[in-house]
Amino acid sequence: MAVITVDIVSDTICPWCFIGYKDLQKAINLYKKTIPGGSKDEIDINWKPFFLDQEAPKESIRMGDRMLKRMTPQQVAAAQQRLRRVGQAAGIRLSFDGYIGSSRLSHQLIYVARMKKGSAMQSRVTETIFEYQFERGADLSRLGTVLEVAVEAGLDKDEVQGWFEDGLGLLEVEKEAQEQRENGIQSVPHFIIGQHHVDGAVDIGAFLEMLGEAKQDKKQE
């Protein structure tokens, strides 16, 4: 059995990170069905924080309004149409009615979920965060929303609230996010699979090829 580590550098306010993860999941399912011995292998996904907005905004704003700060109305409409089309292909019903604010609380929850409960729970929490952000129109800069996410993912509300009250993972998240930029990562999603580093949207076939090569590299170790 091979253990293949996949690092995903992402921000929870990035729709392409959600889309990329969905496509990675499909590639992993194919890997387990088509690669000899793949069904017995373990794919260990490790989420790494990144802040697209390095300075946390003081207040959340509507997602569409945030896009208008960077694009014309025509560009926003085109970008949303493309995201909806690509998202639908990935199995995501993207909504742009929600709010964008600081992603620090969500990253803190993701980090501590792995530290306390392991990688499977970390991915469950992360996927639930993405669903709240991009399908339900939630405001993840609010502690109450993040606690709701934690409970839906299977965590105990009182335990998680204690994590936040104690500041668990907060400094580590800031440090790791800074390390990503020091390592030359300027955009997300960024995937690290074995020897491969790849930015942005990756098709399922490319993910499958990288996973297969990572397995071969493990055999040679």
Automatic annotation (TrEMBL):
Please state what the protein is called: DSBA-like thioredoxin domain-containing protein
**Annotated DSBA-like thioredoxin domain residues:** 5-210
* Highest taxon of source: Eukaryota
Q: Name one GO molecular function term.
A: oxidoreductase activity
Give any Pfam family that matches. DSBA
Q: Which InterPro entries match?
A: DSBA-like_thioredoxin_dom, Thioredoxin-like_sf
